[in-house]
Every structure is written in structure tokens, then in C-alpha cells.
Amino acid sequence: MTELNRRPDADYSGLLDLDVLTAWTMDRQRVHPGDAAAYEEILATFQSALRSEVVDGDGRLSAPLRARKVEKHLRAAIKAARRQEAAMERFRLAAAAHKAHVRALPAQREAKQLRKAGHRASAAALAAKSLHKSAAAFAPGAEDAAAAPAVDPARPMARGINDLFGQQRRRGA
Q1: Residue 21 CB: number of other CB atoms within 10 A?
Q2: Exposure letters 75-94 (e unless 16+ CB within 10 A, then b)
Q3: Which residues contact 62 (CB under 8 A, 6 or more apart)?
Q4: Average pLDDT per run of 10 along the chain, which is 173 residues long?
Q5: Gyration radius of the chain's alpha carbons
Q6: Residue 39 contacts residue 17 (beta carbons within 8 Å)
Q7: pTM beyond 0.70, yes or no
């Protein structure tokens, strides 16, 4: 076992190092199967002892049913020891995945910023292109000035949609 398990006032901050954590979890994984095997031996001993305790007036299954009330706790301990072994493996893998994720975060964030900058630049270029096209379409050129209709001085030029509605009401429409 590692030195970390032998000290009652153990400082577990050493487990933050992945190599130390791996050694510690492997030690735990070696201990739990041994615990499960010991619990199974104890269960076998208790089963044979408790199931053979026959009291006058017992039915055929009375002793085994009484024994089950004790055996279920040992079975739970066996199951818990096996779950602990698997839990230690999952813990080690999760810690390793977390470390890898944290190491990769700066590069991921930088790539995300570059993508965002590229999207912003392309959106700005599209907007500029659209504005240039709109400006060219709305600005009258030399050939458009000759084809433009003459403005009626009696009717003022409409500057907005509300001006158009105002002109229609005055005309009686």
C-alpha cells in the first residue's frame, strides 16, 4: 500500500498528481477484491452455522429464512466491495479525463476566438458589400438623371411613408 494510506493524518492533496492518484487507486483496487473474498468466506461460515441452528417446532425453511436476515448484510458488504473496486477505476479515469480537458481548454478557447473573429470578419465583409451595392443602386448615375421624371413643383417631394399618407388625404383618396 502507498504511504498515503498508512498515516492517520494523511494529506490527500498529493492525490492531485495523476501518477500518485493512479498508484493510490490501484492500491484501493487491490484491497477491495480481498475484502470481498474475506466477506464471502465469512458469509459461508455464517451460512453453515446459522442454517444449521434448528429450534424445536421449526418448519423445513425456518432456519434458512432466519439466517437470511443476517446473510443479507454480508451480501451487501460483498456487493459494496465490488462496487468500490469499479468506483476507484471510474474515479481514476474521470480524474485523468478532467486533467486532459483542463490542459486542452486554452487551445480550444483560442480556436473558438479565431472562429468567432473569422465569422465577424466575413459578416462585416458581407455587410460592406451589401452597403456598396445598395448605395450604387440608390444613387442616380449620369444616365439615370436624364431618365428621371421631372418633379412637380405643386406637389412637394415625399420624404417618408407618413408624407405619402398625408398627400393622399389631401387629395381626397
Answers
A1: 19
A2: eebbeebeebbeebeebbee
A3: 54, 55
A4: 58 80 87 89 88 83 87 92 91 91 92 88 84 77 58 65 64 53
A5: 42
A6: no
A7: no
